[in-house]
Design a protein that fits this description.
The complex is a heterodimer of chains A (290) and B (156).
Chain A (H helix, E strand, L loop, with lengths): L4 H8 L4 E5 L15 E4 L3 H6 L4 E3 H23 L8 H20 L7 H17 L7 H8 L13 H33 L8 H45 L3 H38 L4
Chain B lengths: L5 H131 L9 H10 L1
Helix pairs in contact in B: 1-2
Classes of the chains: A mainly alpha (290), B mainly alpha (156).
């Protein structure tokens, strides 16, 4: 644990960033780049100076790794799936699948082949990504530090890019199904003729901007709240683990153990909420209210 | 906390994972689940049917048992009746036989008596002749007085 507390915290909250630095940029060690270069950021400042064209290799790497792990396990079970007596893995996978299937059936009454597998992927993937929060905060970063990587943030869902990436995909699906089910006119009508409407045509037209503002905000709020809720919960949880790690060694477990146990609830709940809200939003997109 | 390409990378990964899950994970598991559901439903139906069959078989066996008992009772009754008949018949037979024996014995006795009487008669006739001879001191010609003697014997 090197440096002051604030350095320690900052270090822990910095992603391993690979991105493009512009020509003439003065790097942290004082060297000046002659031309624009793709490189790993050595400091937080460098990472933020890379702007949009940068990748968080750690977030993305862990996220993809965990996603592949999830699909590998489930694919293995799916391949060996029998209608006879199921084995241990198949039992577990079936429990998950049935749980998700029931959640979907309770909320979504239309016919859609995408929603249930989508919900399963979201739940399992988000849960696994959240689960990384329970790995002691210094364990993996130290390991990668020894391998020469300066930064390593192992919980993908504490990266707002990851949660936004997922919620915006869900948002795209909301728009797609809204247009598909209701048609362009129906979707626009839903945005402009509700919640205030009138029989008077003039008044109706007058109310369109008001309705558009209200409905537009609620539409945009869906992906943003979806992403920020997950991100905020996990970020806060991670931060508290980091703060606990600043305590003297003998005192750490008195706080970190209860917090970790509580966090088991949080990570499951957040994964469930993300899945449930996705289902709810998509079922709303399928409902023709006119 | 910079918004950058990671978001798009994550969205692409998300898309690929969802498609993979939709194509290769969800359908086989759901198929297995539904097939098992069907199997269990079939099994339950079969067990219901078997229970009904069992009930029917029990009823049938009870019925047959009852019938067999009735038959046995009827047979026993008949046998009893038959035995009574046989006993009755043999009693009759015995009585008849006895009567016949008695009849025979009586007839024999009668015959003996007749024989004895005849013998006695003959002897009486001889004695009477002898007596008469003694009285008359002459011989009686048996052939001449035969008629009289026979009359005498018949009177005895």
């Amino acid at each position: 644990m090197a440096g002051s507390a604030s350095e320690y915290i900052k270090h822990h909250l910095q992603n391993l960033t690979y991105g493009k630095l512009p020509a003439g940029y003065e790097r942290a060690d004082g060297t000046v780049l002659e031309e624009s270069t793709w490189t790993l950021a050595h400091t937080g400042q460098e990472a933020s100076d890379m702007g949009f064209w940068a990748l968080h290799i750690d977030s993305l790497g862990w996220a993809i790794g965990l996603g592949v792990l999830f699909l590998f396990l489930f694919r293995m079970a799916a391949k060996r799936a029998t209608s006879g007596q199921p084995g241990g893995l198949q039992n577990f996978v079936e429990v998950m699948v049935e749980f998700v299937d029931n959640s979907v059936k309770e909320t979504f009454h239309g016919k859609n082949k995408v929603i249930a597998p989508l919900a399963l992927t979201i739940f399992c993937w988000v849960f696994l990504m959240n689960l990384m929060d329970l790995v002691p905060v210094d364990f993996l970063p130290q390991l990668f530090h020894m391998m020469g990587l300066e930064y390593m943030k192992v919980v993908p869902t504490t990266d707002v890019n990851v949660t936004l990436g997922m919620s915006l995909s869900v948002f795209a699906l909301i728009i797609y199904y809204s247009l598909k089910v209701k048609g362009v006119g129906g979707f626009l009508g839903e945005l402009t003729l509700h919640p205030f409407s009138s029989d008077n045509l003039f008044l109706k037209i007058l109310l369109v901007p008001v309705n558009l503002l209200l409905e537009g905000v609620s539409l945009i709020a869906k992906p943003i709240s979806l992403a920020l809720r997950l991100f905020g919960n996990l970020y806060a949880g991670e931060l508290i683990f980091i703060l606990i790690a600043l305590l003297p060694l003998w005192a750490q477990w008195t706080l970190s153990v209860p917090w970790a146990i509580f966090h088991i609830l949080v990570i499951t709940l957040q994964a469930f909420i993300f899945m449930m809200l996705t289902i709810v939003y998509l079922s709303m997109a399928h409902e023709d209210s006119h | 906390m910079n918004i950058n390409l990671t978001m798009i990378g994550q969205a692409i990964a998300f898309f690929i994972f969802v498609v993979f899950c939709m194509k290769y994970v969800w359908p086989p598991i759901m198929a297995a689940l539904q097939e098992r559901q069907k199997k269990i439903a079939d099994g339950l139906a079969a067990s219901d049917r078997a229970a009904r069959d069992l009930e029917l078989a029990q009823e049938k066996s009870a019925q047959e048992l009852r019938e067999a008992k009735q038959q046995a009772a009827a047979l026993i009754e008949e046998a009893n009746k038959r035995a009574a008949q046989i006993v009755e018949a043999s009693k009759d037979e015995a009585r008849k036989e006895g009567d016949k024996l008695i009849e025979q014995a009586k007839a024999e006795i009668e015959q003996e008596r007749n024989q004895a009487r005849d013998a006695l008669r003959a002897e009486v006739a001889a004695i009477a002749v002898a007596g008469a001879e003694k009285i008359l001191e002459t011989s009686v010609d048996a052939s001449k007085h035969n008629e009289m003697l026979e009359k005498l014997a018949a009177e005895l």
